[in-house]
Amino acid sequence: MAVKVLIVGMDVATMTLALMLELAGVDYLLLEKSDSVPAVAGGMSLHPTVLPLLEQLSLRDDLLFFSQPMEQVLVLDSDMEHITTYDWSDRRIRYGAWSRFMTRPEYCSIILEKLTESRVLFNKDIASIATIDCAEGNDRAEGLPLVMVDNRQDSMLDIDITMEKGEARGGVTVECTDGSSYTGHLLVADIESGVELRFHDSNKPTPTGSEWTQGGRQEDYPVNHAATTKRPTSATTTTTANDTPAPREVHYHVSGVTEALDPQRIPLLKEDTTQFRLVLDDRSSLSWWVATLVDHRIAWQVTQRTRLSDKTTGQQADADWPLEDEEAAKASIMSQMSQSMMCPLGGTMAQIAQWTFPSEISCKRWDDRTAPTCVNSNNVPHHSRLQLLGEACRKVVPILGQAADESILDALSLAEAIVALPPSARLVDIREAFARYRKERTSRREAAIRESQDLDQLLNAKGAMQKAYRTVKLNYTPKCTQERRMDEKYSFRPQANFLQPVPDYGQIQPVHQHHRSRRP
């Protein structure tokens, strides 16, 4: 029986994974609770690390049409005085491709067009998820294990549980609010879909009789405490043994894409390369960037960065404790986009916001708490058949496109692990595949976290001392040192080992992934 993968939630990572599985001939089903692709409004950068892979996925022509090359990034202060310039003009020669800039919705829509229509289902809101894995000698009737879903017993008759070499195989079943259900061998979910809140793993001790509550006992099923723990909305807050640590730093990112604008009014829109401008404001907690798009639109983002004191946990909260609701945070930041907040492409950020439809504005929260995962501190899976994907899976500060790149690379590594599974995959095979995936990505993930934190501290930290350090660091670091760091980063240009390779045009030779096992 061929391996079948259920994918819940649509974002950059999960849709890239779906396309790779499609091209590899792996059976999959993509479920989304909205009626269309719910991509976050705003722009995204794609760097040389992922561009060879995207060419493998037959996205090259679409990217050339919907994106523009980025040759440089200008960093300015709030008075529009120049701080530094990141020169990326040699990336095409050194690494084979320029970095490119486009919107997230367009990236996801491009991929959607390449997926088999019957394998993508919208309006599928997840009600519950259950796994089933039984060992030989199970004492249940006819060897059919039972699970409790929504406080009732269901025989999982549609799951392959035949015995092979003394071990039974099982699967994971997703039940939707419309009454439909879908079964696969493993589940991959967007980390922001809230899947873990609905996940019941039969590998945990099975409660019986009066021990059952709605969907099972809470303590029997580990959940994403980061998602369930309420952030403080009153003057006080407490922590318990199950709570994640309180964040010490919080960012709210309000992003948008304007309507098509008149290039006579904003001449930089005429350029055939993306004009990216990053503004650092030493007089407030805000920073912002704007970037031109292919069709005379402007992608923009305003970030509010709040540093929290240690005493906010368990005591009187500081007045600057971040808002819990992202809509409220968006309204607060939008209200601060005054006529004095200059847009480095021309006009003001208040005008940019006025030229943006409300449906094209979104808000995301980032904080420095540990990201939820599917494993505990001993690297033992909470859920044997679940793997989370998405930019929030690691604490990479979303700056200059690094988070999007890393999530695409996550999707590649996971796809290779899935494609390498035997056709009749047992639970032990899935566990080993997930373990290889985590091992392969750990070192790069940690390096990306450190790099993003250093870059964020360099660009966004406030104060006279930090401003002086920033000026020296950005303008007097030797070019050879900068090039060596970039070569180390962008020499990693992996391609999928289960697809036909494409030529690499970079002068700096690519370094490939360590794990290169192929599908048997």
UniProtKB/TrEMBL annotation:
Residues 226-245 have a biased composition (Low complexity). GO terms for molecular function: monooxygenase activity. This is FAD-binding domain-containing protein. It comes from the Eukaryota. InterPro entries: FAD/NAD-bd_sf (IPR036188), FAD_mOase_fung (IPR050562). It comes from Linnemannia schmuckeri. Residues 204-216 have a biased composition (Polar residues). Residues 199-218, 225-247, 500-520 are annotated as: Disordered.
